[in-house]
What does this fold into?
Amino acid sequence: MSEFDQKQQDAPSKGNVDPLVGRVLSGRFALEEMISRGGMGKVHRAIQRPLDRLVALKVLDVSDQSGEFRRRFFKEASLCAKLSHPHTVRIYDYGATDDGIYFIAMEYLKGQTLYGVLHREAPVDPMRGLRILRAVAGALAEAHGAGIVHRDLKPSNIILVSHGDNPEFPKVIDFGLVKEMGTDSELSRTGNILGSPMYMAPEQVQGLDVDERTDVYALGLILYFALCGKTAVKRGNPMAVLMAQVQRTPPTFHEVDPNLQIPPLLEWVVTTAIAKNPSNRFANMHEFIRALQVCELMIQGALPGPVELSLDRDGRVVMPTGVNVSVESSGVSRLQNTGAHAALINPPDTTLLQSASGAIATDAVPKPMDTRSQVGPLLVMGGAFAGLSGAIVAAVLVAVIALAWAWWFTPSVVTEIPSVPLVVEVPAATSTEVLLTSVPTGAEVELHGALIGITPLTVNVPIDTPWNVTVSHSGFKTRTVRLASGHPVSTVTLEAVRVAGPAPVASPIPSAVPASAPVAAPAPRGDLIDPWAKP
It folds into this structure.
């Protein structure tokens, strides 16, 4: 049972009574129970007819019934409904009733909030925290690509659900405060809250323009909390918290707890994400993801040595020579080989020898023969027979060349004892390319819940480890495909989603939006109460 379900079970029955319970909105959504209340409205458990689908129906609490609000509502709801990342809650439908009730129907999520997990278990293992929050970053990167900033990202707006063999599959919920980048959203300003002070960026507190770096700041604060077990800003009076977001630099990990074992590189990533000046943060969520990927590889011991990162003047991650993480993948780490260290990462046609100390030793591998060193001895030998007749010289020269050739390749190098103790032999080829295509094309391909590309897609699949990837496309059923090195081409045909029943004809409410990704559950009471929220 999730903490939210427990909260509802413990709550008095009167607390769940709501005038809307029992109503059927727009002839499609039968409201069964109010499950949460927030600054922007209330969330009900409802059944969508005629699909008989359980949904979370968010009813907005608004007083502005103007035509401008209606236009903004439908515009912003349609933007959010287009998000299809697996770690973003899916929006099924949205609309308004004749009596002015605005609603959004979302996927009903059963799980626990990241807020509850962190308050019980933080500090968490760095790899666990990175795995969860990098998935969240992927969802936000897609939203930013669509021109949407969340602006209210916090642990209680991240729900951990069970998905396949992953018991902590994160879902980002509550885009109720979304802002379309480059516009002043009327809907965003209609609510009584401006965000959550504990995770608000300085520019947001000061009423300045916000962009994707605002969400980078909030995600950095969540990662700080996960790794340290304490929030970067001390809880207290809301106004004091807001002032601290603008003026105070959070303590270092060592100052929080000298016993924390956090790699310096990971601390640098967190510190960069929560820089007060947006220009000193990662330029966007993709750059943040790249830095998190390097941290994961470093912790796993997949890098040849200590790694240091930095930002260029545009806020992009500067990788050390020889190590680069593919920008195209928000979930699967790929090393690109450049510079002097390329041979250490992906040697072309040589065998790598690993010493007992764990370092890669290339000097123990026989070096290619320099053919120029053969010319001198052959010419000297040939000159000794210059006075003989042509036939004899030719015969003798052939014999000499044969003897010289045999002598030159006498396995003296083979019998030579390597200077570095041999421990492990690593095969040069560890993966093979597999081309994945889909009908229709343009489907998203995910591995372990992380987006790795769009079809048609060439994937480097490990030779000894087949991959089970998920292929999804808006308006089509998701399918799982097995990619193996023995099958260089794989094609998957997606089945279109069929919606039961005819669509309403004369209705001001837009048609249902094709299913996208899962939603959510309410924020727990333990989070900081916003000073502008209604009681």
Notes: The longest helix spans residues 126-145.
